[in-house]
From TrEMBL:
SUPFAM superfamilies documented for this protein: Arabinanase/levansucrase/invertase (SSF75005), Concanavalin A-like lectins/glucanases (SSF49899)
Keyword Oxidoreductase among record annotations: no
Protein name stated in the entry: Glycosyl hydrolase family 32
Lineage: Bacteria, Pseudomonadati, Bacteroidota, Bacteroidia, Marinilabiliales
One GO cellular component term: cytoplasm
Keyword check for NADP: no
Pfam families: Glyco_hydro_32C, Glyco_hydro_32N
């Protein structure tokens, strides 16, 4: 028999057999591999673009039941290029719907980072009181001027939407803030300031931020500068955000100024610092000029917060880009590059006379939790040395781990947890009592060959109490670690070649007690 004919017949028979045996809901293998969001390293419950390059979150605004997420996007490649604003919408902060590109580069330049607001009183005149416009405020980055070595490369511009963010019209009077002689002059972030009944804008200008006011979002007055003598200056200041936050359990309000910096982060490369202080609508004065970090991990950058979250809700919700410019363009994903963090609720607490900005995953994260394994429900577990926990077959690579440790009389020299696969690749989170710090070790995490800046151990200073709670979200190629409800946060990515299947806890030097351990599976949002 002709071989070709035989192969063809065999294939038909095989397809028929598969179709009959697998029932109506199963897909064939061919379909399975082309199914989106199943690629190697693809996050299952974090936002990532369908394809191509993404960096900073932009224009985050809530309007009429929808959370908008725009983002720095280059649709033609998996590395950075002429920037667009990609767009996605969510009604619950966890499930995202991809939307068409919102803003394309034009003769004034690429569309760099920025923010968006609802112009409720139609101060800009682009809409009406009945249909207030959404206003996007972004940076134009002119590549021609950059190439020619000019300084006036960056300026601020606006665009408006009258159809709930579906289509955007750029203002013909752009730029609304022309370049002022700073080569780095970008990432405008706008809020409505109730107290002075004006708009405030904060942007970054290389080594400081500038603060502006406006009545109509088109005409801006430069009010003041902050930062030349404050914070860290090992890199360029980028993507600021300025907003008030009530101190938990009090009537006191502090202003939070977030300033991203690259390089110069706490563990190398990109990082997000913040300052707390007072703001009268014109000038920001910091309580302390020292740097605080929003996140001590290496992979949370360019994070800013949503505007116009309803007062009844009252949350300040933060989202960051889960990567680091030190290696972002080299990470081993093929179809797309990078993801966002989980949205996080920011809160301010006073701890031993010190204010601390906490972040914790938004409560909507509960919506996607699946089955869970309570590792030890009745009995507390004494840990001395290394112990593997029984996670009852749950997929660690897509999970939420909640662990509570109780210290004995003396602290162990070190304790922590380890996620490991069959190949021995692992990531470890440990606490060192002598160094008083948490450490995240990804030196044996899998593929690290793409950059010599990737491997390493991140450290985060922290004083623990008699108990420690760890909440860890693991999603394919990332871990978001929240210590004691978000007093300390670390976000790190990694590229293990097989999923993690073992969860181990350890205590060295002294024993401790694991009083609670729960491992919860998380459903895919796609
Ligand atoms: C931060 C950043 C911003 C800039 C954008 C360009 O990651 O460098 O300062 O607007 O990315 O894509």
């Amino acid at each position: 028999m002709n071989h070709k004919y035989f192969n063809f017949l065999a294939a038909i028979l095989l397809l028929y057999a598969v179709a009959c045996s697998s029932g109506p809901t199963k897909t064939t293998e061919a379909e399975e591999t082309t199914k989106p969001y199943t690629e190697k390293y693809r996050p299952q419950f974090h936002f990532s673009p369908d394809s191509a390059w993404m960096n900073d979150p932009n224009g985050m605004v809530y309007y009429e039941g929808e959370y908008h997420l725009f983002y720095q996007y280059y649709p033609d490649s998996t590395v950075w290029g002429p920037m667009h604003w990609g767009h996605a919408i969510s009604t619950d902060l966890v499930h995202w719907q991809h939307m068409p590109i919102a803003l394309y580069p034009d003769s004034l330049g690429y569309i760099f980072s920025g923010s968006a607001v609802v112009d409720w009183n139609n101060t800009s005149g682009f809409g009406s009181a009945e249909n207030p416009p959404l206003i996007a405020i972004f940076t134009y980055h002119n590549p021609e001027i950059a190439k020619a070595g000019g300084v006036d490369v960056e300026s601020q511009a606006i665009a408006y939407s009258l159809d709930k963010g579906r289509s955007w019209t750029k203002y013909e009077g752009n730029p609304v803030i022309p370049n002022d002689g700073n080569r780095d002059f970008r990432d405008p972030n706008v809020i409505w300031n109730e107290e002075i009944q004006k708009w405030n804008l904060v942007l970054s200008a290389h080594d400081h931020v500038q603060i502006y006011t406006s009545d109509d979002l088109k005409n801006w007055k430069h009010e003041s500068d902050f930062g030349i003598d404050a914070g860290t200056h090992d890199g360029v200041w980028e993507c600021p955000d300025l907003f008030p936050l009530q101190v938990e359990g009090t009537d006191e309000t502090k202003w939070v100024l977030i300033v991203n910096i690259n390089p110069g982060g706490p563990n190398g490369g990109s990082g997000t610092q913040y300052f707390l202080g007072d703001f009268d609508g014109h000038e920001f004065s910091a309580d302390s000029k020292d740097t605080n970090w929003v996140d001590w991990g290496r992979d949370n950058y360019a994070g800013v917060t949503w505007s116009d979250v309803p007062k009844e809700d009252g949350r300040r919700i933060f989202l960051g880009w889960m990567s680091n410019w030190a290696y972002a363009q080299l990470v081993p994903t093929e179809k797309w590059r990078s993801a966002m963090t989980l949205p996080r609720t920011l809160s301010l607490i006073k701890k031993k006379e010190q204010y601390v900005l906490k972040s914790s995953p938004v409560k909507e994260a509960e919506l996607i939790t699946a089955n869970s394994a309570t590792v030890n429900s009745d009995e507390a577990l004494k840990i001395s040395g290394v112990k593997e926990l029984d996670i009852e077959g749950l997929t660690l690579n897509q999970s939420r781990l909640s662990l509570e440790f109780e210290m004995g009389e003396t602290l162990p020299e070190s304790f922590g947890i380890l996620l490991e696969n069959e190949l021995g690749e692992n990531v470890t989170l440990s606490y060192s009592a002598s160094a008083e710090q948490f450490q995240f070790d990804r030196t044996q995490s899998g593929d690290m060959s793409f950059s010599d800046q990737f491997s390493g151990i991140s450290v985060a200073p922290y004083k623990i109490g008699s108990t420690v709670k760890l909440e860890i979200f693991v999603d394919a190629a990332s871990a978001e670690i929240f210590v004691d409800g978000g007093d300390l946060v670390m976000t790190e990515i990694f590229f293990n070649s097989q999923p993690f299947s073992k969860l181990k806890v350890f205590a060295e030097g002294q024993s401790l007690t694991l009083v609670n351990a729960k491992c919860t599976g998380i459903n895919s949002i796609w």
